Amino acid sequence: MEKLSLDVIVTRGSTTESIHRVHAAVVNADGTLLAGARDTDLVTMWRSCAKFFQVLPFLTSGGFDQVGWGEEELALSCASHGGEPEHVAVATRMLTSLGLEEGDLACGPHEPLSTRGARLARESGLPFNRLMNNCSGKHSAMLARAQTAGWRTQGYERADHQVQRACLAEVSSWSGVALDDMPIAVDGCGVTVMALPLDRMALAYARWGRAATSGDEWPGRTLAAVRKHPMLLGGTDRFDTVLIEETEGAVISKVGAEGVHTLMVPAIGMGIALKAEDGAQRAQHCAVVHILQQLGVLQGALPKRLADWLVRPIKNTRGEIVGEVRPAE
Prior knowledge:
Radius of gyration: 19 Å
Number of domains: 1
Shape: globular
Strand order of the largest sheet: 1-5-4-11-10-9
Number of helices: 14
Largest sheet: 6 strands, mixed
Oligomer: single chain
């Protein structure tokens, strides 16, 4: 196993002011641990990185085609979106097609995560709503799963509901982690969330990437949807969108809260999972770009949009650059 160094430092002047410890695992689709940083089997909540797998039971059941959804709805089902008008419009369309409305979503309202989304929401004068929640697409797909299966929609977010049991079983199947060994909790958006070792997260993504490029219908259709609509997966200034666009879909990236990130390189069946130990997002994005450089996935000079995520300036209240966030090595 190749040992990687992914820690991130924050400087002020020439002094290191803070250090973020980063753990990571790099695994191929056969389960071989190729590389890692610190604890490759660190157990942590998978958060929104699980969305590719949480939508699969709905897809394979035939329900997705039954409700007549397309690539945009599929991309938004996997998204941690920025709450921009384009995201809200697709989520609204998803609910309307089911005869449902915003109030049926179990997620709560919050300010849009993208800078553009937040600005447009403020300028509209409308209160923040559940459609702006970065998980509204996932919730809409879960409601559709319940409705098309003939299950009650109320409580679809709870661990004992058929929707969530199917999601957990899907994650178990792809990761190889038994359900009894999978700690369960409640995610920020209210649905069930599971904890896994980093190397099993990476394995699940490696397997998903291989399946998507080997003729497996639904991973393949999902991969195509995300590649075609990366803006719906994230947003105009969201990291996953930038990475997918700049690599022309060669890397598929999925953010999770509290410093967890999972990626796949489908062409080579590689899965990557990392965790900023203290949950700092400023560290996880820097570490993602850095690990892709160390693995040779990103070669040569970085395009500016990715370089800006690798090294980010620290500014004071007067707008002066007084330090930076960057890889420790």
